[in-house]
Design goal:
By secondary structure, the chain is of the alpha+beta class. It has a domain of about 120 residues: Aminopeptidase (3-Layer(aba) Sandwich). It is about 30% helix and about 35% strand. An eight-stranded mixed beta sheet has the order 1-2-3-4-5-6-8-7, sandwiched between helices. Strand 4 and strand 5 form a beta hairpin. The model has no long low-confidence stretch (mean pLDDT about 95).
Protein backbone atom coordinates (compact mmCIF):
# COMPACT_ATOMS: atom_id res chain seq x y z
CA UNK A 1 0.00 0.00 0.00
CA UNK A 2 1.44 3.42 -0.91
CA UNK A 3 2.21 5.65 2.07
CA UNK A 4 0.48 9.00 2.10
CA UNK A 5 2.14 11.84 3.99
CA UNK A 6 0.43 15.19 4.25
CA UNK A 7 2.68 18.13 5.04
CA UNK A 8 2.28 21.68 6.30
CA UNK A 9 4.86 24.33 7.04
CA UNK A 10 5.70 22.67 10.36
CA UNK A 11 4.08 19.24 10.42
CA UNK A 12 4.02 15.84 8.75
CA UNK A 13 0.70 14.03 9.01
CA UNK A 14 1.54 10.41 8.41
CA UNK A 15 0.87 6.78 9.23
CA UNK A 16 1.62 5.60 12.74
CA UNK A 17 4.87 3.70 13.34
CA UNK A 18 5.82 1.28 16.11
CA UNK A 19 8.26 3.84 17.54
CA UNK A 20 5.33 6.21 18.23
CA UNK A 21 4.08 4.03 21.10
CA UNK A 22 5.84 5.82 23.98
CA UNK A 23 4.77 9.31 22.93
CA UNK A 24 1.25 8.04 22.19
CA UNK A 25 1.00 6.47 25.65
CA UNK A 26 2.29 9.66 27.27
CA UNK A 27 -0.21 12.10 25.80
CA UNK A 28 -3.14 9.68 25.79
CA UNK A 29 -2.47 9.02 29.51
CA UNK A 30 -2.55 12.71 30.42
CA UNK A 31 -5.83 13.41 32.29
CA UNK A 32 -5.94 16.92 30.79
CA UNK A 33 -5.82 15.49 27.25
CA UNK A 34 -8.27 12.68 28.05
CA UNK A 35 -10.80 14.88 29.91
CA UNK A 36 -13.31 15.14 27.04
CA UNK A 37 -12.35 11.91 25.30
CA UNK A 38 -13.91 8.45 25.55
CA UNK A 39 -10.85 6.58 26.80
CA UNK A 40 -9.72 6.04 30.37
CA UNK A 41 -6.24 6.77 31.67
CA UNK A 42 -3.58 5.62 31.94
CA UNK A 43 -2.79 3.88 28.67
CA UNK A 44 -0.25 1.13 29.32
CA UNK A 45 2.85 0.80 27.14
CA UNK A 46 1.49 -2.55 25.90
CA UNK A 47 -1.87 -1.02 24.95
CA UNK A 48 -0.10 1.85 23.21
CA UNK A 49 2.14 -0.53 21.25
CA UNK A 50 -0.83 -2.60 20.08
CA UNK A 51 -2.82 0.50 19.16
CA UNK A 52 -0.12 2.21 17.10
CA UNK A 53 0.57 -1.01 15.20
CA UNK A 54 -3.15 -1.36 14.43
CA UNK A 55 -3.39 2.29 13.37
CA UNK A 56 -0.31 1.93 11.17
CA UNK A 57 -1.84 -1.07 9.40
CA UNK A 58 -4.92 0.95 8.39
CA UNK A 59 -5.70 2.09 4.86
CA UNK A 60 -5.93 5.88 4.51
CA UNK A 61 -8.04 5.68 1.35
CA UNK A 62 -10.60 3.06 2.44
CA UNK A 63 -13.95 3.76 4.03
CA UNK A 64 -14.09 3.51 7.81
CA UNK A 65 -11.80 4.90 10.47
CA UNK A 66 -8.19 5.84 9.80
CA UNK A 67 -5.96 7.43 12.43
CA UNK A 68 -3.29 9.87 11.25
CA UNK A 69 -0.17 10.62 13.33
CA UNK A 70 0.71 14.30 13.73
CA UNK A 71 4.49 14.64 13.64
CA UNK A 72 6.56 17.70 14.55
CA UNK A 73 10.19 17.24 13.56
CA UNK A 74 10.07 13.47 14.14
CA UNK A 75 8.12 13.70 17.42
CA UNK A 76 4.55 12.42 17.65
CA UNK A 77 2.47 15.27 19.12
CA UNK A 78 -1.07 14.11 18.36
CA UNK A 79 -3.44 12.25 16.11
CA UNK A 80 -6.40 12.89 13.84
CA UNK A 81 -9.09 10.29 13.27
CA UNK A 82 -11.08 10.29 10.04
CA UNK A 83 -14.11 8.13 9.44
CA UNK A 84 -15.06 8.09 5.75
CA UNK A 85 -18.59 6.87 5.10
CA UNK A 86 -19.13 3.84 2.86
CA UNK A 87 -20.40 6.17 0.11
CA UNK A 88 -16.92 7.82 0.06
CA UNK A 89 -18.57 11.26 -0.07
CA UNK A 90 -18.83 12.22 3.58
CA UNK A 91 -16.77 11.79 6.67
CA UNK A 92 -16.26 12.60 10.31
CA UNK A 93 -13.12 13.98 11.95
CA UNK A 94 -11.74 14.02 15.48
CA UNK A 95 -8.40 15.07 16.94
CA UNK A 96 -6.15 14.81 19.98
CA UNK A 97 -3.07 16.87 20.72
CA UNK A 98 -0.41 16.54 23.42
CA UNK A 99 -1.06 19.15 26.13
CA UNK A 100 2.45 20.61 25.79
CA UNK A 101 1.78 21.39 22.14
CA UNK A 102 -1.71 22.87 22.53
CA UNK A 103 -2.28 26.57 21.99
CA UNK A 104 0.48 26.89 19.38
CA UNK A 105 -1.60 26.42 16.22
CA UNK A 106 -0.48 22.84 15.55
CA UNK A 107 -3.97 21.38 15.94
CA UNK A 108 -5.53 23.96 13.61
CA UNK A 109 -2.72 23.46 11.07
CA UNK A 110 -3.08 19.67 11.12
CA UNK A 111 -6.88 19.58 10.99
CA UNK A 112 -6.92 22.18 8.20
CA UNK A 113 -4.49 20.05 6.15
CA UNK A 114 -6.48 16.84 6.65
CA UNK A 115 -9.71 18.67 5.71
CA UNK A 116 -8.00 20.03 2.58
CA UNK A 117 -6.89 16.48 1.71
CA UNK A 118 -10.38 15.05 2.23
CA UNK A 119 -11.99 17.64 -0.03
CA UNK A 120 -9.32 18.13 -2.72
CA UNK A 121 -7.78 14.66 -2.98
CA UNK A 122 -10.55 12.37 -1.78
CA UNK A 123 -13.50 14.33 -3.22
CA UNK A 124 -15.62 14.36 -0.08
CA UNK A 125 -18.74 16.51 -0.08
CA UNK A 126 -19.14 16.96 3.69
CA UNK A 127 -17.17 16.51 6.92
CA UNK A 128 -18.77 16.50 10.34
CA UNK A 129 -17.30 16.76 13.82
CA UNK A 130 -18.60 16.79 17.35
CA UNK A 131 -17.15 17.66 20.70
CA UNK A 132 -18.11 17.90 24.33
CA UNK A 133 -19.82 21.28 24.73
CA UNK A 134 -17.42 22.14 27.59
CA UNK A 135 -14.41 21.67 25.31
CA UNK A 136 -14.11 25.28 24.19
CA UNK A 137 -10.66 24.78 22.64
CA UNK A 138 -11.88 22.06 20.27
CA UNK A 139 -14.97 24.07 19.29
CA UNK A 140 -12.78 27.11 18.63
CA UNK A 141 -10.38 25.03 16.48
CA UNK A 142 -13.26 23.70 14.39
CA UNK A 143 -14.63 27.22 13.80
CA UNK A 144 -11.12 28.44 12.80
CA UNK A 145 -10.94 25.71 10.16
CA UNK A 146 -14.35 26.77 8.80
CA UNK A 147 -16.76 24.34 10.43
CA UNK A 148 -20.21 25.69 11.22
CA UNK A 149 -22.00 24.79 14.43
CA UNK A 150 -25.07 22.84 13.41
CA UNK A 151 -26.53 21.74 16.69
CA UNK A 152 -26.45 20.86 20.34
CA UNK A 153 -27.40 17.43 21.65
CA UNK A 154 -28.33 17.98 25.29
CA UNK A 155 -27.17 15.35 27.79
CA UNK A 156 -26.47 13.04 24.89
CA UNK A 157 -23.34 11.13 25.90
CA UNK A 158 -22.74 9.16 29.09
CA UNK A 159 -19.02 9.44 29.68
CA UNK A 160 -16.85 9.15 32.76
CA UNK A 161 -19.84 8.97 35.08
CA UNK A 162 -21.84 11.92 33.77
CA UNK A 163 -24.17 13.00 30.98
CA UNK A 164 -22.57 15.52 28.66
CA UNK A 165 -23.83 17.83 25.93
CA UNK A 166 -22.40 17.42 22.43
CA UNK A 167 -21.81 20.22 19.93
CA UNK A 168 -22.31 19.23 16.29
CA UNK A 169 -20.31 20.85 13.50
CA UNK A 170 -20.31 20.48 9.72
CA UNK A 171 -18.26 21.67 6.78
CA UNK A 172 -19.17 21.36 3.11
CA UNK A 173 -16.64 21.26 0.30
CA UNK A 174 -18.23 24.47 -1.04
CA UNK A 175 -17.98 26.38 2.26
CA UNK A 176 -15.39 29.14 2.55
CA UNK A 177 -12.34 28.17 4.60
Amino acid sequence: MPTTVLTTGRLAIRAFRAEDAAAFAAYRSDPVVARYQSWDTPLTPEQAAETVVAYGAGDPVASGWYQWAVDLGGLLIGDIGVNVHDNLMQGEIGFTLDAGHQGKGYGTEAVRRVVEHLFADRGLHRISAECDARNEASARLLRKVGFQREGLLRRNTWIKGEWTDDLLFGLLSTDPR
